[in-house]
Known about the structure:
Blueprint: E1 2-4, E2 13-19, E3 29-30, E4 37-39, E5 44-52, E6 58-66, E7 69-77, E8 84-89, E9 95-100, E10 104-111, E11 114-125, E12 131-136, E13 143-145, H1 155-158, E14 159-161, E15 177-183, E16 187-193, E17 199-205, E18 215-220, E19 226-231, E20 239-249, E21 252-263, H2 266-269, E22 279-287, E23 290-299, E24 303-315, H3 320-325, H4 327-331, E25 335-344, E26 348-349, E27 351-355, H5 365-374, E28 381-386, E29 390-395, E30 401-406, E31 431-436, E32 442-447, E33 452-457, H6 467-484, H7 489-492, H8 497-512, H9 516-534, H10 544-562, H11 576-586, H12 592-596, H13 608-613, H14 615-631
Antiparallel strand pairs: 1-2, 2-33, 3-5, 4-5, 5-6, 6-7, 8-9, 9-10, 10-11, 12-15, 13-14, 15-16, 16-17, 18-19, 19-20, 20-21, 22-23, 23-24, 24-25, 24-26, 27-28, 28-29, 29-30, 31-32, 32-33
Amino acid sequence: MCDLRRPAAGGMMDLAYVCEWEKWSKSTHCPSVPLACAWSCRNLIAFTMDLRSDDQDLTRMIHILDTEHPWDLHSIPSEHHEAITCLEWDQSGSRLLSADADGQIKCWSMADHLANSWESSVGSLVEGDPIVALSWLHNGVKLALHVEKSGASSFGEKFSRVKFSPSLTLFGGKPMEGWIAVTVSGLVTVSLLKPSGQVLTSTESLCRLRGRVALADIAFTGGGNIVVATADGSSASPVQFYKVCVSVVSEKCRIDTEILPSLFMRCTTDLNRKDKFPAITHLKFLARDMSEQVLLCASSQTSSIVECWSLRKEGLPVNNIFQQISPVVGDKQPTILKWRILSATNDLDRVSAVALPKLPISLTNTDLKVASDTQFYPGLGLALAFHDGSVHIVHRLSLQTMAVFYSSAAPRPVDEPAMKRPRTAGPAVHLKAMQLSWTSLALVGIDSHGKLSVLRLSPSMGHPLEVGLALRHLLFLLEYCMVTGYDWWDILLHVQPSMVQSLVEKLHEEYTRQTAALQQVLSTRILAMKASLCKLSPCTVTRVCDYHTKLFLIAISSTLKSLLRPHFLNTPDKSPGDRLTEICTKITDVDIDKVMINLKTEEFVLDMNTLQALQQLLQWVGDFVLYLLASLPNQPSPTSEPSPTSEPCPTSEPSPTSEPSSP
Length: 663
């Protein structure tokens, strides 16, 4: 059962829908412990749930939910024998890693590109050693969002490629695929996927003196290295950091580790709080590709405190005696890496889950000032869920509250101390796992009863924005999704029907400013984006069928053109399909023989098996073209009056059939 709700006007954070599956019996379905959840760039949510049989045996289930159609849930029997501890999507959103408390890691991939068909053919195992952190290796692709250039004409100015090295490369510089995991005993294991399908796996200790790892997280550096942060769960112990380098030597995977500077949480150095927060419950890097900033949360049974730390280079003071002996030392002061605290919260209610944004917003002071000046707030906040059932969005660096959501009907003041809040008679239902969408405009949470909730996060975070500025921010995020290929469902949550016409027009205008080559690459994405936008308004809903029809015709055209190959493969000339399109554009003669004179007929000859396989498609295309030709004289003239039943809507955006696209 899905409870779908309309957006609340002007709300900072409100409930989009709640999913409760009535066919699931509470006696047989129970939330897994621990509860794992992951949100892909395709807006697919993976989460875990255990199925208990009559003889009390547990089946570890992985559920895949499409956020646009939450009522269609696909369940995968994971075949994990122990509790699933980690879920991790890859950058394409088509593969999923799952790891369990027995050290088994499985790689799930879509079968035939279907979200309801999954198969696992590869994996790795560190037998008997629970996995506490898991990540795909970095592929070297990193974009930077330049909010201050949102008015630029070129997408290359708005979204620039950042120089970032892959974790490992094949011959020719192609990134090598694989994953890295950290175990509870202090081991790091890396598995590499070779193009042949073979899996190279290696395991190494993070340091010589292995210790228990209760919490861990993984981040990547621009130089291709990997940084692992670990904690043993006690706030009295240091948070350790390690640099991990992966290489392939003699067809074997090699792992080299190096110890980096560690830190103690500041709350443990305060004499008044030394024993107040005995356990570290959450350890997260602020971004997957930002190993210099980390978020820590220490908790007691009733309260928590959150701290944000940053790794900086600091000058090392040198005694005057050494400066006199070696003038070179005096000219260039040596530096060391040192962790410095950026911010910390006051005492909070006990934190139950943390979710970090994936939008690539830089956190330098300059970029934060630009974001503040442009009033662009998506990606600046992280989410904290509490045991009282509330969810807070706080600034990634200052940890100041930006928005609050209460699951109960009676809201409480944001600044009310946690210790002054009245306690409920029983334990409150709270979120145990959370994930932010890839544009940070939506949040999914799964509570202690297994209920899934999707929250809508306002792009303005409660700040008053002009309509034009709000439209520009939504347009900027739509362009980001169009360039990256990410799904844009979470952006549509904030599009009102009155915005659709303007967004479609501006999106088409920005698209036409790009180069012809880029337009060809993005031609299908913009059609799909326009179709999904037009569904939101009764004024534009009639265009949806046209956009989908054009997408279908482009797919057929691409399929047929892909069958045609030049007679000589090394020819620099255009492909036969492109040449035929160019000739048909220039020659208006209806005599097909005169058109064929300019073509190389041998390039249009296909083998009989291919023609037989495409016979029905070719017949359909022929019938469709003849139908179009027969229907042309019957088309109404442009001056004909609109139907009295049609709703008058201003339309200045061109018809879908007049937009540039692949022939």
